[in-house]
Amino acid sequence: MGDARPPQELASLVARRLAERRGEFAVVGLARSGIAAVRLLRAAGCSVYASDASKSDAVRSAGAMLEREGASVDVGVHNVQRIAHCSVLVVSPGIPPTAPPIRAALSAGVPVVSEVEVALRLQPALRYIAVTGTNGKTTTTALIGHLLRALGHDVADVGNIGTPVSELALMIAPPAWAALELSSFQLHDTPGIMPNVGVLTTLSPDHLDRYASVDEYYADKKRLFANAELPSQWVTTADSADVDALVAGIPGHWHRFSVHRTDVDGYYHRGSGMLHLFGEPLVARGTFALVGDHNVANALAALLAVMAADPLHRTPLARAKLAKAIGTFGALPHRLEPVVDRNGILWLNDSKATNIDSTKVALASMSRPTIVLLGGRHKGESYTALVPELLRTAKAVLAYGEAGALISGDLEAPLHGRVMVEHCGADSFEQVMHRARAMAVAGDVVLLSPACSSYDMFNNYEERGREFARLADVIA
């Protein structure tokens, strides 16, 4: 469900209404991106109505602050009639398109857009590299920001990585560049996206608790290319038939990367151990600290994107700076992050692995006997796809949370007699951690790579990862 108007028409309409400051702008959802959107619209001289269905202390506090800054705010309720008469509705990515405020706006012909759309329209001089994909997008975005900074640019990492794009526009001296991570939910409502370089890392089924089909999910990823032109610069993997099918026929200059092929612009040459970019070796794989071929792919994607963004990024001096910068990039929190290594047991926090494919990638990186913590809120995929990698590396699977019974049911039969599967219940994450410690011996890895969202026990994957790290430090 969404606005039926072509992206270019919708983006143009929103741009006109922002330029004219026409009518009242509505913002639904008062988490960080919603708050930033309200503040930016107010700073731009727009009349703003904001609402959030939650009555939490955090939302009440945010609402009071925004009222002091001149917005009209409802907490605990949405005024649907008011929203249906607004000029533009700005929606937070966590709110599904079937929610009543969004349905009311769409039925009334009100443009529904993301905070990203509004922020980009109000920062026309911003140069940005936009990254999406099922997995790898956060690491790739962070790498892009890291590499651009190594080249001397003032850069912010924004979007789904944590900082709203609107916060840049509120700065006294905003950065010239941004590394912009975009989820499928954000892309759904960002019709004017037109990056200096666009990156698609991977595609695999995800968010089937929100999307009716994989095709619907892929269609939102494809919105990255909605405004593609012949001069557009794109970076995609050459290792995915789904990606090839999705981008077929889209205009632009295409730069592809691979960890298996060498007939592309960015590749890993296993014989020499070198990463090659635009026809020349750039840096040895051994200088890049992150484990796994998936992180080699992320590095190739980031390097290609930065080098494609400006001809000056491909000079010999720039290449030398980029090669040096790759060696100084470390693991991001919650992405195969080592949190404790004690008594010969390594505890790895991969809480960001909220779907089957990302957990498969984590398992493929393991080279030691592994106790795998799987669980959380189910997202619609079968867990049997994990079986080959579990058979290769797992010592045990501890299934927990709302999805625990489903995980056990999917895995017990195919793993029977080879990998122990234990259902730890739905209530206590601490109990799961103590059970993992009781099973682990020197030489083992305890891996939190849940393949599920965190919302049964935690507010987000970051909170889940922090609790894993805290408990590991206590009990290891």
CATH topology label of the largest domain: UDP-N-acetylmuramoyl-L-alanine:D-glutamate ligase
Fraction of residues in H or I helices: 25-40%
Terminal CA distance: 48 Å
CATH top level class name of the largest domain: Alpha Beta
Note down, in words, how this protein is organized.
There is one protein chain. This protein has 476 residues and is of the alpha/beta class. It has three domains: 7-118, NAD(P)-binding Rossmann-like Domain (Rossmann fold, 3-Layer(aba) Sandwich), CATH 3.40.50.720; 123-326, Mur-like, catalytic domain (UDP-N-acetylmuramoyl-L-alanine:D-glutamate ligase, 3-Layer(aba) Sandwich); 337-475, Protein-Tyrosine Phosphatase, Chain A (Alpha-Beta Complex). The protein is 38% helix and 21% strand. It has 18 helices and 20 strands. It has helices spanning 7-20, 32-43, 57-68, 80-84, 100-107, 115-121, 137-150, 166-169, 184-188, 214-222, 241-247, 293-309, 316-326, 356-364, 387-393, 404-415, 429-439, 461-475; strands at 24-28, 47-52, 72-75, 88-91, 112-114, 127-132, 155-159, 177-181, 197-200, 233-237, 253-258, 266-269, 274-277, 280-284, 337-342, 345-349, 370-375, 394-400, 420-423, 445-448. The strands form three sheets. A nine-stranded mixed beta sheet has the order 7-8-6-9-10-11-12-13-14, covered by helices on one side. α16 (404-415) links the parallel β18 and β19. The chain is globular. Keywords: ATP-binding, Cell cycle, Cell division, Cell shape, Cell wall biogenesis/degradation, Cytoplasm, Ligase, Nucleotide-binding, Peptidoglycan synthesis. Belongs to the MurCDEF family. Pathway: Cell wall biogenesis; peptidoglycan biosynthesis.
